[in-house]
Amino acid sequence: MASQSAHLPTSVEETLTLLRNGNYLANRSLATALFLALKLNRPLFLEGEAGVGKTEIAKVLSATLGRKLLRLQCYEGLDVTTAVYEWNYSRQMVEIRMAEATGTGDKDALESNLFSDAFLIKRPLLQALEPDVAGPPILLIDELDRTDEPFEAYLLEILSDYQVTIPELGTIKAEHPPIVIITSNRTREIHDALKRRCFYHWVDYPTAERELEILKIRTPQAAEELSKEVVGFVHRLRKMDLFKQPGVAETIDWAHALTQLDVMSLDPEVINDTLGTLLKYQDDITKIQGSEASRILNDVRTELAAARA
User: Do 60 and 168 belong together in one domain?
Assistant: First the structure.
């Protein structure tokens, strides 16, 4: 990965290479959306199931471009004080008491000092507007669908002009807009007004061939036969009626876990013992454990044997 600031890619091919240098194997449509977002200074809005690699794109960009990563993890009730800024009230109170104790300074000077940059706690959205010697930072607004609509409306205002107004200080505007990646697991629909500000891409589960390539990059220590069985098993799970289908992140975790156990090839017992690294709900685990796991594994082995023949 890049250890210093790098230039933005100048083509889709360079974007694919940039992501691959960060061990992220993207398809061409995703690389195209990212390239255009970088080229035209537009936020990239990524939707898809949890665990398909949306958040990882921002992390890879930060590493390969040598830019600071600012992550705003969204949740219900997120507000301006957590996302943008707040005043350091405890430090302001100390300053007031010190002024009272010493009897120094007039009221206007004290108020001006209290509401200066020194007492301002900057949160990710405000930090993203500040200049950086390495270049505009990567602003990751993660899982926007977890917030409520008032915050979404406020975010729309910021992304329109890349500026924030602080009543006591005035308007702070980015000299160069940050690189903005917004993710959503689609637990609710995001308003069209915000989507119109962004380039959009749906991050889907990869094909079996691409997921096998991902495993070769992310878990190179795994035996080739094991990786093929893992990918085949996971892809069959994704076709089943499960509460939560495993994402690419879970595939990688499972392959890592199996290699730590020195597993060279799947068998029903090791699948039953390690399903908790792949499936995150007990109802799903119960549905797969035992005879169902054996049946799926047999189907996978039959398919692999046919491919070798």
Answer: yes
Query: How confident is the model over 262-285, as a mean pLDDT?
Result: 96
DSSP state of 40: T
Are 23 and 154 contained in the same domain?
yes
For 166-220, the DSSP string reads: ETTTEEEE-SS--EEEEEE--SSPPPHHHHHTSEEEE-PPPPHHHHHHHHHHH-T
On whether the CB atoms of residues 267 and 300 are closer than 8 A, the answer is no
Name the nearest CA neighbour of 87 among 166, 9, 157.
166
Query: Is 6 within the bounds of a domain?
Result: no
pTM for the model stands at 0.89
> Do residues 264 and 226 lie in contact, with contact meaning Cβ atoms separated by under 8 Å?
yes
Split into its structural domains, the chain has a count of 3
Judge if 245 and 178 occupy the same domain. Answer: no
The pLDDT value given to residue 110: 75
- Asked if 33 and 60 sit in the same domain, the reply is yes
Q: What is the pLDDT of residues 43-52, one digit of tens each?
A: 999 999 999 9
Please answer whether residues 79 and 16 qualify as being in contact, where contact means their C-beta atoms are separated by less than 8 angstroms.
no
Number of other residues whose CB lies within 10 A of the CB of residue 108:
8
Task: Give a yes or no: residue 4 inside a domain.
Answer: no
Region 153-176 average pLDDT = 91
C-alpha 114 chain-centroid distance = 36
Handedness of CA 192, 196, 197, 203 (dihedral sign): positive
Note the pLDDT tens digit of each residue in 190-204: 999 999 999 999 999
Tell me whether residue 309 is in a domain: no
183 and 221 housed in the same domain: no
Residue-range definition of the domain harbouring residue 94: 85-118
**Amino acid code (one letter) for 9:** P
How many whole angstroms separate alpha carbon 106 and alpha carbon 99?
9
